Amino acid sequence: SPVPAPTATLVRVLKNSNTLGIAIEGGANTRQPLPRIVTIQKGGSAHNCGQLRVGQIILEVNGISLKGQEHKDAARIIAEAFKTKEKDHIDFLVFEPGL
Amino acid sequence: VSKNPQWVPVTWVF
Q1: B10 interaction partners in chain A (CB closer than 8 Å)
Q2: A58: helix, strand or coil
Q3: Which of chain A's residues have a Cβ under 8 Å away from the Cβ of B12?
Q4: Helices (H), chain A
Q5: pLDDT, tens digit, for every residue of A50-68?
Q6: CB pairs under 8 A between A and B
Q7: Which of A11, A13, A31, A40 has the fewest Cβ atoms within 10 Å of its own Cβ atom?
C-alpha cells in the first residue's frame, strides 16, 4: 500500500485558559530538528482545542517558521505567541509524520 | 559518531 504522504495541518488554538500547556522537544542542531509535541497538559488551551496531538511536529507559529530555530528560541516564540494580547489565538502549522 | 547530541532538550510552554 502506498506510504501515506505526510500532511501539514493548520491548527488554531484559542486562548481559552490561562495556560497553553504543551511540552516540546528538539530544535535546530539536535536529532529532532523541528520541535515535536511530547506532552499536552489537560485543561490547557492546547488540550482544549482538541486538534493538537503528541507526536506532531510544529513547522510554524503564527506564520513564523521554526526551521533553523534553536530549542530555546522555538520555545520562546511559542510562549510569546501565547502571551501576546494582540491575538486571542495561536495558529500552529503542524505536521503529522506518517499520517 | 553523530554530530547532533543524542539527548534532546525538552521545555514546557505554559
Answers
A1: 23-25, 38
A2: strand
A3: 22-23, 39, 41
A4: 45-49, 71-83
A5: 999 999 999 999 999 999 9
A6: 47
A7: A31
